[in-house]
Design goal:
390 residues; alpha/beta; Spore Coat Polysaccharide Biosynthesis Protein SpsA, Chain A; 10-stranded mixed β-sheet; 3-stranded mixed β-sheet; 15 helices; 13 strands; globular; membrane; Nucleotide-diphossugar_trans; Xyloside xylosyltransferase 1; transmembrane; transmembrane helix
Length: 390
């Protein structure tokens, strides 16, 4: 009996310890689950900048859905025009600033890799966000470039002092979605079959509002050959200045490229402002830096009418237009007819450096297009032009 009693006492102690362990597990475990997995990873990596931050934050996304590591309770607009989302469990609002870059063929081009390094390091050097803000970097990529991007972004972003997310989107999946929308545009604004800008993906910005999920209402699209001289957050604040009908913020073209492209229309209409230099002319636009108000694009009856194939063909015929620069050509053409759709960004937000047209027949007028007053916020090394050192 004594042995049995001793054995039962021992069982009681074991069961009591097990019960306490279960209670402790659920008590403390539930508290930890109040943080979304993304927020926990951000907090952990910010505690040690020397850790591999991208191991936590990099995700793969081919359908423009939310990152599987992020659980959002809802979406609304904040006063800066960026998406505000509530993290599950925390009840804390975090403003998400979305920026997208085309990241194709980078694995096969040392030049593109060098440009991307300059862009990302300069962006990180100047970027500054509030504690409840997240910079979401979207990359449209092919498999080879994505693999390279995942590797090099770990180095470029390791010293970031703010929260961020990185999403890769599959180029082929997006091309499949885009092709029916932009097929009619390609014959007017592409260099030809198989050419760089003939790919449907280079019309992404034109139909971004139809591709992105509705909870993303504003996004900035950026070229790779940029160098940032100021906080990228300040660019997003330009959304606040959009007039009522504007759907896109964009800078003017700083070369006489559209003076040349519209040559036949200009010949038939000698008094036109089309292709003329600023401040009174219509020099066209440059797509190196664009603010896309996706909400406004979705709601604009006029803009969506202009996407229809018959209206694209009608305007192209009216202006005798045939270009080769993809979305930039489309925006420049509709801007001649409907300038109210565009918010003119200051030239310093996309200070283009290319001087090709100066040496190809337009020396006498080049300076009128190239001149840019005011501070430079972003340099654009288009046509492989070297960007000034700091």
């Amino acid at each position: 009996m004594g042995r049995i009693s001793t054995f039962r006492s021992y069982q009681f102690v074991v069961l009591l310890a097990a019960a306490l362990a279960v209670v402790a597990f659920y008590y403390f475990g539930t508290e930890r689950q109040n943080f979304s997995s993304t927020t926990k990873r951000i907090k952990e990596t910010q505690a040690n900048h020397n850790s591999n931050r991208n191991d936590a934050d990099l995700t793969v996304d081919t359908t423009f859905t939310a990152s599987p590591d992020s659980k959002h309770a809802g979406v609304e607009q904040n006063e800066d025009g960026v998406n505000t989302q509530a993290e599950d469990g925390e009840g804390v609002l975090a403003s998400h600033f979305h920026a997208l870059m085309m990241f194709t063929k980078v694995d096969k081009s040392r030049s593109l890799q060098d440009k991307f390094k300059v862009a990302m390091l300069s962006m990180m050097m100047h970027a500054d966000f509030l504690d409840d803000e997240v910079l979401v970097l979207h990359f449209v990529s092919d498999p080879g470039s994505q693999k390279l991007g995942e590797k090099i972004l770990q180095e470029f972003l390791k010293d970031a002092t703010f929260k961020y997310e990185v999403l890769f989107h599959d180029e082929l999946a997006l091309t499949h979605k885009l092709f029916p929308i932009v097929e009619a545009m390609q014959k007017h604004f592409s260099a030809g079959s198989g050419a760089y800008y003939s790919d449907a993906i280079f019309f992404l910005s034109v139909a971004m509002h139809l591709i992105m999920p509705e909870n993303i209402t504003r996004i900035v699209q950026l070229d790779l050959d940029l160098k940032y001289k100021t906080n990228i957050r300040d660019l997003f604040l330009e959304f606040q200045h959009f007039p009522p009908e504007a759907v896109i913020g964009i800078t003017r073209e700083m070369q006489p490229v559209y003076r040349h492209t519209f040559w036949q229309f200009r010949k038939e209409n000698p008094q036109t402002k089309v292709g003329e230099p600023p401040p009174n002319g219509l020099p066209g636009v440059n797509s190196g830096v664009m603010l896309l108000d996706l909400g406004a694009m979705r709601n604009s009856v006029l803009y969506n009418q202009l996407l229809q194939p018959n209206n694209v063909a009608k305007l192209a015929e009216q202006y005798r237009f045939r270009g080769h620069l993809g979305d930039q050509d489309f925006f420049s053409m509709i801007g001649m007819e409907h300038p109210q759709l565009f918010y003119p960004l200051a030239c310093g937000w996309n200070r283009q450096l290319c001087t090709w047209w100066r040496d190809h027949g337009y020396t006498d007028v080049f300076h009128m297009y190239y001149h840019c007053e005011g501070p430079v916020y972003i340099y654009h090394g288009n046509c492989n032009t070297p960007i000034p050192n700091d």
